[in-house]
Design goal:
Strand order of the largest sheet: 3-21-22-20-23-24-25
Amino acid sequence: HGGVIALMGDDHTAESSTTAHQSEFHLLDAMMPILAPAGVQEILDYGLHGFALSRFAGLWVGLKCLKDTVESTASVDGSLDRVTTLIPQDFAMPPGGLNIRPRDNILEQEARLHDHKRAAAVAYLRVNKLDKLVFSGGKAPKIGVITLGKSYLDVRQALDELGVDEVKAANLGLRLLKIAAPWPIVPETITEFARGLEMIIVVEEKRALLEVQVREELYGKNAPILVGKRDEAGNWLFPVKGALDPNMIAIGLGERLLRYAPDAEVARRLDTIKAFESRRAAQTDVATRTPYFCSGCPHNSSTIVPEGHRAYAGIGCHYMVQWMDRETEGFTQMGGEGANWIGEARFSKRGHVFQNLGDGTYNHSGYLAVRAAKASGVNITYKILYNDAVAMTGGQRHEGGLTVDMIAHQMRAEGIERIAIVSDEPFKYDSGIAWPAGTTFNHRTELNTVQRELADIEGVSVLIFDQTCAAEKRRRRKKGEFPDPDKRTVINELVCEGCGDCGKKSNCVSIQPLETEFGRKRVIDQSSCNKDFSCQEGFCPSFVTVHGATVRKATSVAGTKADDGFPALPEPVLKALTGSYGILVTGIGGTGVVTIGQIIGMAAHVEGKGCGVIDMAGLAQKGGAVYVHVRIAETPELIQAIRVPAGGAELVLGGDFMVTGSAKVLAAIKPGVTTVVVNTDETMPGDFARNADYSLPSERLKRKLRSETEGGVQFVPATAWATALFGNSIATNMFLMGYAWQLGAIPLSEAALLEAIKLNGEAVGMNQSAFLWGRRAAVHPERIAALVEAKQPKTEARRLSDTFAESVERRVTFLTSYQDSAYGERYAAAVQRIAALEAARTPGKTALAEAVARYLFKLMAYKDEYEVARLYADPAFKAQLE
């Protein structure tokens, strides 16, 4: 940061001189991609070179940003005296230098750019020797690899997997060149590198920027065979789509190395890598955890469209509506919302569409799309979804203080006559606000009525749906900046019939299944509920609003006398730390998955070892999957690419059953080698809100994991155990980490891990205790299970019967209370008659009798208004509230 401040502090308004390029930091007149970071350490080094090159050549200089480098964490040497920048002394600087001068005209700037600036950049790269010849290729080099940035790390990892170090590379005749800048390249570097080679392989991410320059430089010079994006036959080798990984590169390099220099060990390793890749290609997801709207999200209501109508998506959280049953499809770049309809409308039989437009996108560039639609005369209703925050990127406030009335006036100024405001609180607006004439206000329950009216209007109309982002509500309530209703919704589990109408009405993920003796019911997860109350719009007498009450804090078992008597734990035999050790941590966003990667990485750092961490989060903050890739090694130099490829995991720490069963995680497992510890507690995805009968394929997931690990998997009900032990499910992942460490699957000391937890600074005592109890669970699972079971409170309905006879007896008792003993006996007689028939025809089987017992009971215990009243008067409901 000091370097940046010093550079920006220079007088960039002064007139340039012939030496200005050495002392001034100016506004620059051209831009080039340069200095792709090859790793976290090199981002520091290349950043300083970037500043120096920019000042010398008068060019914009940019870092090529890839997730695997700029969003990775590693142990680095932060001392700045490592880097020395040299200024070319033999470069013929033009009169006036290369930086912008006052009154500099356009043509002169263009001429200077092409005549001098590119040459200046090349001169800087040449004198500072930023391109590195990593492997010389020995006495008879035949094949060369040119790469840069992230791809260089992938190449080094690929060579490690093939068993190719510097000595082996010399024996095989392999040269390796690491380029610092993807553009421009230093011509002499390429020419010298290519001398004597029979083949050059260029490995780079996405489009071929480096490859085309190498081909151009070597054209007509008796050049070697050159492959990169495509192979010798013109087929894809390192495609522009998707991402490259070390295994893909290892196969491409290994096959070509063996053509020129057969080697049994490389061939054996190549076959192993190919087997892992074949296994990866064959993997399919048993289940998918799709990101979803947060609990209470405004989009649960705002994205609904009337039957028979269609909406387009856009950029923002509301994009996820395409994965739901909302008749919404298609999307554009940010600011292009509705522009597709401008072109499509003339050729469509549909006369009108809705276009969802987030308030952040509207403020950024979506305003222009509305203007374009107005100018084109198409029939479209823009639903501007005002959530009072740029929610998808962290909840920032709107630039310029954007408000609903400002949007309304802006739209009227563009000539849009029909403007409707829909809100969960339509009467909240200050009476002093001067709205555009004709603006209407409706409650969100009237959304469809308003939308049908707007759909019939010729031209452009605007509906502003105003409801604060649910995540922002939660944050602001914690700070006392937003009203917090003193009420909560609960569901009477005996009245609930499990029909799922509450989920369909609210689309809310806080509505979760509850398995009871009398079937699957619904329960509201009070810890995630954001008090939207749209679930109450379902037609259901089981919903209860509780006023003036707070959620009871769960009691903690851990740390009390209940843990006395635990025997001393044996010290685990830790796996050997050879090469780089790959760990894959999985889970659901917001449950502390990323923290586990940070803790392991910091523990390695504390021990003086190397570490690398990448968090693959994506839309995880919306309940989606999280994958944290961790590498640890004896020294930082042993870590190349951090991302764990197919067959690359020594440990899979599965914080979520569904995510751990995904194809990409299963592919990372080495059968018989990888330790897999997976949390078996079920967390329903958003699909459950729309499908009342949705169930996780738990048994299929277990079978798949057993098969892929060849039995080397540990199933742990970690959420249930951690919640019971600590009164908080957030301890789950730390509990799992302790479990895995006790199995020897994290080759770091306990002292280092506990110190890393301390350095993290969050709930240190609880997290260190969770680690200990995870260790205990790995050694004494039966004792933990018994301890947890004894402390878990259950209502009578939540206690499941152990036998068929018990389940019938409990239903007889219920029906007796429902009406009378004769009614209960009638039920019992019917069930027993079926049971006797089934026993006579299929001895030992009770499946039919069990089905009759369940569903005859549901029929006979029909919930009319009298039965609902009885169930509310039953002491069981008060017990549930307690």
